[in-house]
Amino acid sequence: MPKQTFLNLPRERQREIIDISLKEFSCHSFETSSMNKIITELEIAKGSFYRYFKSKKDLYFFLLDYAVNKKIDYLERHIDINGNNFFEIYRSVIFNYMKFDLTFPIISKFLRSAVDNRYIEPTKILNSLNGKTFIENLVINGQKQGEIKDFLSLDFVILCIINLSESMLNYINVKLGIEYKDLLKILEGKPHGYKNQLEDAFYQLMSVLETGLKPVKAN
């Protein structure tokens, strides 16, 4: 965590240190990230920087907390959780995940790197929403409402949702060559040549989720 000397800095200088550090750690793993590059770009002496943070690891985990909280705050403000249907709420979750990535690309890249290097769990963001149990409550309520098979374990359902969502985005990028920016325009209802194909991809994802998670109705 930062030392008091960092917290005493003007907000603009704190932001500059955070932004430059995030940029370096988003492009490299923790091990290969260069503190010298960060310090040089900030135009301060190495000794001065370590008056703000004890070590490289200290800085990294401060940035991790900052990035996670930034995404949690954004999602809590934008996800529509007032719907009664699990799958409708899920659509809002995946849309706003993508919108955050487009709005804050460096933070998103940094978080992806942290997940890939196992500094945080893939479910940390979702698990931290709305009182630390957003995704768990979403699935539990879905099971209570009869929308999700009640014999499926919580961890298994969450893993399926996250992995299928990421696989779908990879599929869209490879199959259709659609960038995030264009993807968002389509989701917001703006005209685009790939609109039908994208809607079909989303339909397939929701179909797989609903078919796999919904209970089978007795005849």
TrEMBL record:
One of its GO terms (molecular function) is DNA binding. Residues 11-71 form the HTH tetR-type domain. Residues 34-53 bind DNA. Transmembrane segments: none annotated. SUPFAM superfamilies: Homeodomain-like. InterPro entries: DNA-bd_HTH_TetR-type_CS, Homeodomain-like_sf, HTH-type_Tx_Regulator, HTH_TetR. Keywords: DNA-binding. The keyword Disulfide bond does not apply. PANTHER family: ACREF/ENVCD OPERON REPRESSOR-RELATED, ACREF_ENVCD OPERON REPRESSOR-RELATED. This is AcrR family transcriptional regulator. It comes from Clostridium botulinum. The lineage of its organism: Bacteria, Bacillati, Bacillota, Clostridia, Eubacteriales.
